[in-house]
Structure formats: structure tokens, C-alpha cells
Amino acid sequence: MRRSSYLFTSESVSEGHPDKVCDRISDAVVDAYLAAEPEARVACETLATTNRVVIAGEVRGPESITKDRVIELARDAIKDIGYEQEGFHWKKAEVDVYLHAQSAHIAQGVDAAGNKDEGAGDQGIMFGYACNETPELMPAPIFYAHKILEDLTQARKAKANGAAVLGPDAKSQVTVRYENGKPVGVTQIVLSTQHLDENLSSEEVRAIVEPYIRKTLPAGWVSPETIWHVNPTGKFVIGGPDGDCGLTGRKIIVDTYGGAAPHGGGAFSGKDPTKVDRSAAYAARYLAKNVVAAGLADRCTLQLSYAIGVAKPLSIYVDLHGTGNVDEAKLEAVLMEAVDLSPRGIRTHLGLNKPIYARTSAYGHFGRKPDADGGFSWERTDLAGTLKTALS
After folding, report:
1. Is the pTM of this model over 0.90?
2. What percent of the chain has a predicted confidence (pLDDT) above 90?
């Protein structure tokens, strides 16, 4: 039986964190290929360190996406994030591109041919999760850890109320107190944020960021007993890839549910949606969210599994954690019928062959509002009515 009163902690990182810089560049490359050719194949990895970016991977798409275009995409991403520092500058950084053609052996297993449907781009397991802790049906700790950094980033870019002195690199961590299974407050708040004025003390940085954090969190969640750790190591001036090497795909728990749910192990960023690491994880979230939105359970964990070159999922597993009002085995059967969970079926249902991925590279792939152009389509709850009817 799950404990009803406990503490749970999740962390997030800003778009200027070294790993997130790399996620952003890799997803910008994915978007460029999909914008030029919706059926393009991309597996793009990025490394970033002091004034150097290395982009490598496998692609299959139009020749219009040249090496110079990829370099331009990287510089644009770095500039938008806000890096104009001596050790990492959008204009001065050296950018090397080592993208080459996708393996023909992979392509033959994945592509549709004759009577064979398109297969999964790799084997693996993917998880989706939803719960009723927030209106977005996300676990509260990760949702608010993201929101703190997103709000601070908006303030930094708008140069609002002292935030102009903050740098792009930041990390947050929120410890949430649960009573009777519901989030009711925060006991610890951690924020480490880069600052451009090297004379600022931790106390002065806290004075800048605390009003934003208090405004972000629900009313009453911060109490006199809440412990704050703002730049606990002291000064944080050297940040981003100049301070720490970054790589694509190293923040998979930040990208998903903050540790509140299992993770299959595959990263999302840099991959086109034929890769089930990405698309099936989105589909699993979509299904889990619609289960909770339909009122069928308070919490839902859903697993899908795939084999490379095989179209249909090998298995589907649903756990309602004792909070459901339907039979889980029956629900699994209904979900398999409700959506075509082959790679092509997922892409069609969720409209994933679009340049919608750079925006996912920071502040989480889940718990976001669906965009009018199809971004975050996996956050829709348009399946909830169908599930209710099928299980009534």
C-alpha cells in the first residue's frame, strides 16, 4: 500500500544548462529536416564545451539541409538561449558537423515495403504516466520545478525586476510534502542560477529570484518552515558549456516525470518520430493522460514495448495503482483498439511529422499546453470520451 504522507523531490534544469543546449540544437536539426521533408530520418547528437559544438549522427533527407545550414541552426539556438559570453558565444563558438547517411541495414527493417508495414526504429520499452495532482495531470514536484525555471527565464529575457543579471544556466529542485496522498506544500526549494554580475552574493541572488518562485508556487505552499537553498555553493558566474560539458539526452528524468514514474531509458531529443523512443513515449503519455482525464483512475502508469522492424507493439501494460474504477486488463484491450500504436499509426494520430520539437527541449516534454500548430499534441484529452464510453 502506498504511503499517504511523505516527501517527494524532483529537479529541473533551464534551457541554458549544457545538456539542454545540446538537446535544443539536436531538436532544431530534427525540425529543419521535417520542415523540408516530413518523412525525413534524423538521429542527431550534440556535444558542447568551451566555445565548441560538435554535431554528429545519421540522417536521410533533402540535400537542402547543408552543413552550413546546420551550423546556422546551432548558432541561432545558442543565441536564442542567450549565450554571449567569452567562453561560449553564439557567434564565436566553433561548430563541427559530422552528419552522415542513415545505415541501409536499419532502413530496410524500418521502412514499409510491399506488404510489410513500417516497423519500429528500434527495440525498447516506453512509459507514460498521468496523475491528478495538477490541472495538467502531472506530478506536482516536476511540474513546479519546471515552472520555476521557465518563469525565471521569461523574466531574464524580458529584463524584468532585476532578472536581467541572471544567466541562462540554472537548476531547480522542489521537495513537496504530501498529506493523504495530495501535495500540500514545499519543505525545501533549491535554485542554482548563473549570474552575470560576479559581485552578487547568494543572498542578493535570492532577493531577486524569491518573488518569482513564490508567485509560481500555489498559494500557501511556501511557509516560514520552508528551507531555501539559493546558489548554495556561492558564486555561479561561469555557466553553460563553458563550465560543464553538455551532451544530448542526458536529462531523461527531467524530460519526463521527475522520477515519479518509470522510464524506459531512451532519450527523446535529436530523434525523428519514427524512433519509438520518442513517439511511443508520447503515445504512452497521451493514453495515460486520457485515462485520468476520463475519470477512470487518479493515477495511471502505462508501458509499451517494441522490436526493431516490427510494426505493432509487443505488449501494453497498465497499472492504475489501486486508484482505478475499471479492470486494468480490459482497459489495456480498449486502449489497443482505440489508437493504432504502430509507429506510423502514432505519427498519424498525433500528427508528429512536423517541425514541433525544438520547443520540447526544455521545461519538460509533458504537462504542456497543446499548440495550434500541432506541438504537444500528446497532451490532448480528446480520447477521454471514447474511453469512458467503451468502459461504461
Report:
1. yes
2. 91
Nearest to 237 by CA among 275, 202, 262, 209: 202
- Cα–Cα distances in Å, from 7 out to 253, 282, 320, 354? 18, 28, 21, 39
pLDDT tens column, 151-189: 999 999 999 989 999 999 999 999 999 999 999 999 999
Residue 189 is classified by DSSP as: E
Residue closest to 34 by CA, chosen among 373, 288, 305, 313: 373
Query: From CA 11, how far away is CA 49, in angstroms rounded?
Result: 23
- Judge contact between 171 and 14, C-beta under 8 A: yes
- Mark the binding-site residues for K(+), compressed into ranges: 45
Quick: pLDDT tens for 91-115: 999 999 999 998 665 655 666 545 4
* Residue 95: all three cell numbers together: 561548430
End-to-end alpha carbon distance in the chain: 27
Measure the CA–CA gap between 279 and 379, rounded to whole angstroms.
13
Of the candidates 14, 74, 22, 13, the residue with the CA atom closest to the CA atom of residue 246: 22
Known binding residues are 17, 19, 45, 58, 102, 169-171, 235-236, 244, 250-251, 267, 271, 275
**Rg of the chain's alpha carbons, rounded to an integer?**
21
* Phi, psi of 315, rounded to the nearest 5 degrees: -160, 160
Residues placed in the known binding site for L-methionine? 58, 102, 244, 275
Residue list for the binding site for Mg(2+): 19
Length in residues, the chain: 392
Q: To which residue does cell 529570484 refer?
A: 209
DSSP-assigned letters across all residues of 78-144: HHHHT-EETTEETTTSEEEEEEEEPPHHHHHHHS-BTTBPPPBSS-EEEEEEEETTSTTSS-HHHHH
Query: Are 16 and 168 in contact, with CB atoms under 8 Å apart?
Result: yes
Mapped onto helix, strand or coil, the DSSP state of residue 53 is strand
Q: Pull the grid cell for residue 287.
A: 493514453
- Residues 6 or more apart in contact with residue 12 via CB below 8 angstroms: 142, 145, 146, 148, 149, 171, 172, 173, 254, 258, 363, 364
Cell 521569461 belongs to residue: 154
Which among 74, 75, 105, 106 is positioned nearest to 91, based on CA atoms? 75
